[in-house]
Amino acid sequence: MMKKAKKPATLAQRINVLRASVMGANDGILSVAGIVVGVAGAATSSYAIFISGIAGMIAGTVSMAMGEYVSVNTQKDAQRKAIETQTVALDEDYEGEYGFVRDKYLASGIQPELAEQATKEMMTEDALKTTVRERFGFNVGEYTNPFSAAIASMISFPTGSILPLVSISLLPKNWRIIGTFLAVVVALSITGYVAAVLGNANRRNGTARNVIAGILTMLVTYGIGRLFA
Question: What does the H/E/C string look like for the chain?
Answer without folding.
Answer: CCCCCCCCCCHHHHHHHHHHHHHHHHHHHHHHHHHHHHHHHHCCCHHHHHHHHHHHHHHHHHHHHHHHHHHHHHHHHHHHHHHHHHHHHHHHCHHHHHHHHHHHHHHCCCCHHHHHHHHHHHHHHHHHHHHHHHHHCCCCCCCCCHHHHHHHHHHHHHHHHHHHHHHHHHCCCCCHHHHHHHHHHHHHHHHHHHHHHHCCCCHHHHHHHHHHHHHHHHHHHHHHHHHCC
